[in-house]
Amino acid sequence: MNTMSPVRLHLLRAYYLLIFVGLSIQHVPRLGSAATLPFADGVILAMLLGLAGLCLFGVFQPIRMIPVLLFELGWKLLWSVSVALPLWQGGALDGRALNTFYACLWAVPIFVLLPWPIVARALTGKATSWQS
Questions:
Q1: Which of 27, 70, 93, 94 could form a disulfide with 88 if both were Cys (CB 3.0 to 4.6 A apart)?
Q2: In this structure, what is the dihedral angle of CA atoms 23, 76, 43, 38, given to the nearest 10 degrees?
């Protein structure tokens, strides 16, 4: 059986809450003018607010919502390696890209907080659900 210590479980819940609050504060005010945004910016806004909503569920069901954190970790790693790193190597890492890279650093706690044995069991098919 894969269990987490209560402290680690509460830290995971706090991290979901941090993502929810941070994304909500930053992006909910922009929702009223979403129709006037460039197309890609509107898509990004909708996806980030969807992610915020899923993170709110993660506060109450932290283990079941682990795939949300894996998505968060995945896109941030992918962007950092495929976009930020080449820009940095070419000396073209501008303010907007640098700010996005700094935002990607918020994924670092995911490595520490995720219960990797539970993730491994779920990804290898040895668990019937994310709760197992």
A1: 93
A2: 100
The verdict on residue 53 lying in a domain is yes
Say if CB 72 and CB 110 are below 8 A apart.
Answer: yes
CB 27 within 8 A of CB 50: no
Residue 50 token pair: 């969807």
Counting the structural domains of the chain, the total is: 1
Cβ count near 20 (within 10 Å) = 19
Is residue 97 in a domain? Answer: yes
Asked if 60 and 94 count as a contact pair (C-beta separation under 8 A), the reply is no
What is the structure's pLDDT at 47?
95
The H or E element that residue 44 is part of is: helix 39-60
Whether residue 128 lies inside any domain: the answer is no
Q: How many residues does the chain have?
A: 132
Which parts of the chain sit beneath pLDDT 70?
1-2, 128, 131-132
d(CA 56, CA 110): 16
Residue 15 lies in a domain: yes
